[in-house]
From TrEMBL:
This is Coagulation factor XIII A chain. Residues 1-13 have a biased composition (Basic and acidic residues). The active site is at 322, 381, 404. Binds 1 Ca(2+) ion per subunit. Its cofactor is Ca(2+). The keyword Cytoplasm applies. GO terms for biological process: blood coagulation, fibrin clot formation. It catalyses: L-glutaminyl-[protein] + L-lysyl-[protein] = [protein]-L-lysyl-N(6)-5-L-glutamyl-[protein] + NH4(+). It is found in: Cytoplasm; Secreted. The lineage of its organism: Eukaryota, Metazoa, Chordata, Craniata, Vertebrata. It comes from Campylorhamphus procurvoides. Residues 1-42 are annotated as: Disordered. InterPro entries: Ig-like_fold, Ig_E-set, Papain-like_cys_pep_sf, Transglutaminase, Transglutaminase-like, Transglutaminase-like_sf, Transglutaminase_animal, Transglutaminase_AS. Belongs to the transglutaminase superfamily. Transglutaminase family.
Length: 736
């Protein structure tokens, strides 16, 4: 060996590290060379590899209409390579230079992943050809021999690591192992398999597999408990390059390749890398209504643009809020084959000290004291559930697991949450990893209205035990409707089981102050309630406050209404309405009072989700007792109209027309429209300088749909004064 080649060999070696023999192996993309000729020692002079069995070609049956992708439910992936699921056999054909003779010829297959492949790490897998396949274990058998070709059926292990493997065929000769040349066309992606009983993500219902693994569009429920709204989201897990982008997320999270067969580990690291806090992950969150140098969270129509931008730039994509984190996380999970669904929890508690109570402090006038109040109630919060067994927990806690990519609190030092067993949360077994106490508080906290006395004691004016987590929903299987799953998370309010679950959670360390040590005498003989009229953005509406005096005494009350513009996280931006009035409450009767809210009072400060929060407090002058109540409400936001023109046939041009009429009493400035539909068209953006009041904007886009079947078009409009404007349309694309 010459000096220069020896120097080069030295340079190629990884730098020495006293802690480990090999550098960390956590990139699916990197690879090292495999020798084509691997000699057993000195090779005799007359040795010619051409004299032995030689591989001429390997045929992978990797087209969408061919057997492998059809049987493995991977025909929708827009990817030229072979994609199969673990624990289920797939077929390949090997063409040799002469007929294969089993008596004398010996060959085997090698699947490799990453650099420094090792057998005990699952990154180097040699497969000898046998007579039969064992279920769920690596193996290969010959199914047919003809001329110079053999047909093989290959079984990947049901627990193997997932990702992109490189395939080599090795032939044994007396003096050396001869391998096929590196050929990226034979690279094989192996994914999780919810159709395989031995896989940790096995799901036994075909309709649920169709929905939670194969559906590439979904519904995000938003709004609030009084007014549930829905919009479509394009997951796009089968679109071009998305699979590579999802595998890259695991590289980014530095998850060792050997850990990538375990859905628990994958979910845990992904919940951290979906947000940009502490690891420069996929999406930068912003909740402050200013989205400079980025896209407003409400403008995104799906996950594909976000994942592809991150994959190419390696920098966090701006900006996201909870449904964006959840939408992208859902794409990641479904793309890898883990069944997943997006969940919305209405009136979600963000409890800063996880003591199962949210403290709202009132000042002397009965207004909320924003300086003292640290906890907040989100109108809604979105997270994900992923389906898997939990061999790390006692029996019975597998199934749906909560995972949440929205950065709220740190867990083991990073912004991440889950997987937490939904079953464990329901029964109060919050001792089981990961982050169950936090999720338990999100759906089970009580709201305390407190008043600070001058001497510093806290007086509880009201406790609301039913407000938090009163509705938990997801999209129904096989349709666009809403499915309520509140009872998966909690027993009915007030039942014995619910009390028992709470006591269990407290026993396992969820902090809860007992109400015995707090002074609290509720007002019993007078009830107060209020209703907010449904209204369209830009119109006036009224709030009606009703008192019911159940006693035989006359009372007078001093009442106060505070109207606030809030972020959907329940944090106040500004108080736009203050209104005080006094009320005379006659014995055994009800009385109502209307307060009119004018559009001129709220339009200038309005935030993107048109959310208001009303507090009404009333002091009964004769007894000094305080009644307090709070409600969130949302204005109706106008929608986009979508139509199509021309014939709807795969491979032929059609037109999509988006229309919007400006309903506001002002001109809309800096308007951006987005339109996408998986299988019909990639995301298109168009900017308009302004839309005058009452005028209609029309935008026509020509496209050529690629996939037949029922597809969905999704559009969004974003402007300075108006956001969260959506439209959608189901279209049936015919086969050519």
């Amino acid at each position: 060996m010459s000096e220069t080649t020896r120097a080069n060999e030295e340079n190629k070696k990884p730098p020495l590290n006293g802690r480990r023999a090999l550098p960390p192996n956590n990139s699916n993309d990197e690879e090292n060379e495999v020798p084509e000729v691997d000699p057993f020692g000195l090779i005799p002079r007359g040795f010619d590899p051409k004299d032995y069995l030689r591989v001429v070609d390997i045929y992978m049956y990797k087209d969408p209409h061919e057997v492998n992708k059809q049987q493995h439910h991977t025909d929708k992936y827009y990817n030229p390579r072979l994609i199969v699921r673990r624990g289920q056999p797939f077929q390949i054909r090997i063409d040799f230079n002469r007929p294969y003779r089993p008596e004398t010829d010996q060959f085997w297959l090698e699947f490799l992943m990453g650099r420094y492949p090792q057998q005990n790490k699952g990154t180097y897998i040699p497969i000898l050809v046998g007579n039969a396949l064992k279920p769920g274990e690596w193996g290969a058998k010959i199914t047919r021999r003809e001329n110079n070709s053999i047909h093989l059926s290959i079984m990947p292990s049901a627990t193997c690591i997932i990702g992109k493997f490189r395939l080599y065929v090795a032939v044994l000769t007396p003096f050396a192992i001869l391998r096929t040349r590196r050929n990226p066309a034979t690279d094989t992606y192996i994914l999780f398999n919810p159709w395989c009983q031995q896989d940790a993500v096995y799901l036994d219902d075909e309709r649920e597999r169709e929905e939670y693994v194969l559906n590439d569009v979904g519904i995000v429920f938003h709004g609030n408990i009084e007014d549930v709204k829905s919009r479509s989201w394009s997951y796009g897990q089968f679109e071009e390059t998305v699979l590579d982008a999802c595998l890259f997320l695991m590289d980014k999270a530095e998850l060792e390749l050997s850990g990538r067969g375990n859905p628990i580990k994958i979910c845990r690291v992904a919940s951290a890398v979906i947000n940009s806090r502490d690891d420069n992950g996929v999406i930068a969150g912003s909740w402050n209504n200013s989205y400079d140098n980025g896209v407003a969270p409400s403008a995104w129509t799906g996950s594909v643009d976000i994942l592809l931008e991150y994959y190419s730039s390696k920098q966090p994509v701006r900006y996201g809020q909870c449904w964006v984190f959840a939408g992208v996380f859902n794409t990641f999970l479904r793309c890898l084959g883990i069944p997943a669904r997006l969940i919305t929890n209405y009136s979600s508690a963000h409890d800063n000290n996880a003591n199962l109570r949210l403290d709202f402090f009132l000042d002397d006038e009965g207004k909320v004291d924003t300086k003292l109040t640290k906890d907040s109630v989100w109108n809604y919060h979105c997270w994900n559930e992923a389906w898997m067994t939990r061999p790390d927990l006692p029996v019975g806690f597998g199934g749906w697991q909560v995972v949440d990519g929205t950065p709220q609190e740190t867990s083991d030092g990073m912004y991440r949450c889950g997987p937490a067993s939904v079953q464990a949360i329901k029964h109060g077994h919050v001792c089981f990893q990961f982050d169950a106490p936090f999720v338990y508080a999100e759906v089970n906290s009580d709201i305390f209205f407190l008043r600070m006395e001058k001497n510093g004691t806290q007086v509880v004016e009201k406790i609301d035990t039913a407000h938090i987590g009163q509705l938990i929903v997801t999209k129904e299987v096989g349709g666009d409707g809403m499915m309520e799953i509140t009872e998966e998370y909690k027993f009915r309010e007030g039942t014995d089981e619910e009390r028992l679950a709470l006591e269990t959670a407290v026993m396992y360390g969820v902090k809860k102050q007992t109400t015995q040590d707090i002074q609290y005498q509720p007002q019993t003989d007078i009830d107060m309630d209020f209703q907010v009229q449904k209204a369209v953005l830009g119109n006036d509406f009224k709030v009606t406050i009703t008192f019911r005096n159940r006693s035989r005494n006359s009372y007078t009350a001093t009442a106060y209404l505070s109207g606030n513009i809030v972020f959907y996280t329940g944090v106040t931006k500004s108080e736009f309405k203050k209104h005080s009035f006094s009320a005379k409450l006659e014995p055994s009767s009800s009385s109502s009072f209307d307060v009119v809210i004018k559009s001129s009072e709220y339009m200038s400060d309005l935030l993107e989700q048109a959310s208001f929060h009303f507090f009404v407090t009333a002091r009964i002058n004769e007894t000094g007792k305080i009644l307090a109540m709070q409600k969130a409400t949302i204005l109706e936001i106008p929608t986009l109209r979508i139509k199509t023109k021309g014939e709807l046939v795969a491979g032929r041009e059609m037109s999509v027309i988006v229309e919007f009429t400006n309903p506001l009493k002002q001109t809309l400035e800096n308007v951006t429209l987005r339109l996408e539909g998986p299988g019909v068209l990639r995301t298109i953006k168009k900017e308009f300088r302004s839309i005058p009041m009452n005028s209609t904007l029309t935008w026509e886009v020509k496209c050529i749909p690629t996939r037949p079947g029922l597809r969905k078009l999704i559009a969004s409009l974003n402007s300075d004064a108006l956001r969260h404007v959506y439209g959608e349309l189901n279209v049936q694309i015919q086969k050519p």
